[in-house]
Amino acid sequence: KAGVTQTPRYLIKTRGQQVTLSCSPISGHRSVSWYQQTPGQGLQFLFEYFSETQRNKGNFPGRFSGRQFSNSRSEMNVSTLELGDSALYLCASSLGGQGGTEAFFGQGTRLTVV
Amino acid sequence: LAKTTQPISMDSYEGQEVNITCSHNNIATNDYITWYQQFPSQGPRFIIQGYKTKVTNEVASLFIPADRKSSTLSLPRVSLSDTAVYYCLVASWAAGNKLTFGGGTRVLVKP
User: Fold this and answer.
1) B50 at interface of A, judged by CB pairs closer than 8 A
2) Does B39 touch chain A (CB under 8 A)?
3) Minimal Cα distance from A88: which residue of B?
4) Per-residue pLDDT tens digits for B21-50
5) How many helices and strands (H and E) does chain B possess?
6) How far apart are CA A40 and CA B105, in angstroms?
7) Are B12 and B79 in contact (CB under 8 A)?
8) Bridge partners, residue B80, by sequence
9) Which residue of chain B comes nearest to A95, CA vs CA?
10) Do the chains contact at B43 and A105, CB–CB below 8 Å?
11) pLDDT at A102
């Protein structure tokens, strides 16, 4: 079956703009999590959505937001972009049940803020 | 969430066995241990997961001692394509899909 699909793969934005990233999970998966990866901070958890509700949230400012639709697809939005937001943004999907369910990651969206 | 400590890097040669040990002294009763592999510019890929004793699948083995304060990922007969960063994670059963990644171990397999 198809894996996790993230669009777009690459994006260049200007400081102050906003951006929306999309993630389509594996069919049947109800949980989608988002991560930011930078050389300096590594992989950091942003938030998780399960059945259209935010279930977990990391330590990121309110400029980072997300949502999940009824078909489990998820979007992540970053407003008022800063140079430090340049990163690889990854989403992961899983069945969502508690207790060690395997997470499947997409290829990521490479965001560059200039 | 329990913090994990693992070596920053390791070198190996093709055909050798690679063992990466992860320390998680503060692991809680409800925590399980998971390992992921990541290649450059790709998302992490699940390798193996366990709670106690030994778990084996087609790509790796995971050894967890009785006190569960550490775990060892064993990659048998590595090849050049196993060059990657390997992450040890400890997460609660109730954590859902919230994964906390540490710095990982950069494994370089040489010919």
Assistant:
1) no
2) no
3) B41
4) 999 998 988 888 999 999 998 999 999 999
5) 0, 9
6) 15
7) no
8) none
9) B97
10) yes
11) 83
